[in-house]
Amino acid sequence: MTAPSANRAKLVLAVLFLSTFVMGVTELLVPGVLNLIAADLGVSIQAAGMLVTAQALGVALGGPLLTALTVRLTRRVVLAGTIAVFIVANLVLVLSSDYGLVVAARALGGAVGGLFIAAAFQVGTSIVPAERMGRAISVVLSGTTVSAALGVPLGTWAGQALGWRGSFLAIVVLSALVLVAVLALVPRVPAGGRSIGDQARYAFAPRVLAVLVVIVLVFAALFAALTYIAPFLERVTGVPGTLISLFLLAYGVATAVGSFGGGRFADANAPRALILGTGGLAVALLVLYLAGTVAALVVLALLALGVFGMGTAPVVQYRVVGLAGPGAQLAQSLPASSANLGVALGAAVGGVAVGRFSVIATMLSGCAFACAAVVIAWGTRLLTPPTTRDCPLDGREPVQVDRSR
Questions:
Q1: pLDDT, position 402
Q2: Which of 24, 28, 130, 221 measures 20 to 30 Å from 230, CA to CA?
Q3: Confidence band of 405 (pLDDT split at 50, 70, 90)
Q4: Which CATH code of 3.65.10.10, 1.20.1250.20, 1.20.1600.10, 3.20.20.220 fits the domain covering 1-191?
Q5: 342-366 pLDDT, tens per residue?
Q6: Per-residue pLDDT tens for 58-99?
Q7: Pair 258, 352: CB distance under 8 Å
Q8: DSSP 396
């Protein structure tokens, strides 16, 4: 299979990065304009917060389902189709005043977003040499992590400048531009040659599920702590409210560094990178628990939290795709779903820790999740992909990528 030119591959990866960035910012717009949405729709803040939950559930549940339903479609068709539906879903937010319809639109946007990132991973890894697959994964994933660093402040600024509906209208315009770029630059990557049932057998194999448990625990560890990081910084570290955003910005920048760097470590030695990433996460959370009153150490711990926590994401994606073998196409969507389950689990456990103990207990809860992740990551280090004997081609030809576009 002839590889595209390096410049062409970089352009395609840039488009995929921009696409996941726009989708990530869309997910994080709501927290920045939550009060404006609640007032406009005439609902409580808690009800408006359901828009965040709906988006997360859409990614976690809808992403794998839509990936399974579209397994026979070429990847460019899937990418373009998901962006088109994403545009429609956000237009509903701009035009509708019905709360139920707005919640449904957010869930739909999350579902097609989960499908998009799975297809984007497949396209990204198909246009680079095998030894650079981890870096391609990290570029696609970094669109999401960079949006995580910028999404809430951008959402707050845009909400004040444009109103919440104007913010989502801007997303519609950006999405339309991304759609044009996808149609113009992304090559035609055919669907995989196996049936959905055959792919599921490999995508949900125990060796894959073991690695997915790691990403659930990693994000549970992160969000047990991060959900309550603002009150932690204020009450334990003694950071003034006006400076908390600077601490969070430091964490956000570190997540971007981690997601880019994680791909390089995955290319070098993915099993070892997963052990080091989970171990670094556990140490960072332990420092926050033991030295949360020392601002300088808290900053360093937050930087480590971002680098090691988000650095594991491209490593897990790399491992899942490799361990799934012929089920890689379906498996592409599973890490994002698992991460969202981890977010929900971590936030819930963190809430219990705050209610029963204190805000500092969230760091210990997160550390417990991270330690469990280290143990399982260590246990997965010897897992290997299925052999050719384990996965016959079932009479179909191997997938080829049309590089002519």
A1: 41
A2: 24
A3: very low
A4: 1.20.1250.20
A5: 877 887 788 788 778 888 898 999 9
A6: 887 888 888 878 877 887 888 999 999 999 999 999 998 899
A7: no
A8: P
CA distance 118 to 332: 5
Judge contact between 218 and 342, C-beta under 8 A: yes
Question: Angle at Cα 108 formed by Cα 348 and Cα 66, nearest 5°?
Answer: 95
Q: Return d(Cα 403, Cα 32) in angstroms, integer.
A: 41
Q: Which CATH number fits domain 196-387: 3.40.50.300, 1.10.150.130, 1.10.1040.10, 1.20.1250.20?
A: 1.20.1250.20
Residue 188 bridge partners (DSSP):
402
Residues 113, 86 contacting (CB under 8 angstroms) = yes
Portion of the chain with pLDDT greater than 90, in percent: 21
Alpha carbon distance 234, 243 (integer Å): 9
Residue carrying the six token digits 């989970």: 278
pTM for this prediction: 0.75
Structure tokens at 339: 């991460």
Mean pLDDT check: name the lowest of 211-220, 240-249, 362-371: 240-249
Read off the pLDDT band of 153 (50, 70, 90): low
Listed by start position, the domains of the chain span: 1-191, 196-387
Q: How far is CA 179 from the centre of its chain?
A: 20
Same CATH fold, 196-387 and 1-191? yes
What is the rounded distance in angstroms from the CA atom of residue 215 to the CA atom of residue 386?
21
- What dihedral angle (degrees, nearest 10) is formed by the CA atoms of 52, 215, 337, 56? 0
Neighbours of 56 (CB within 10 A): 22
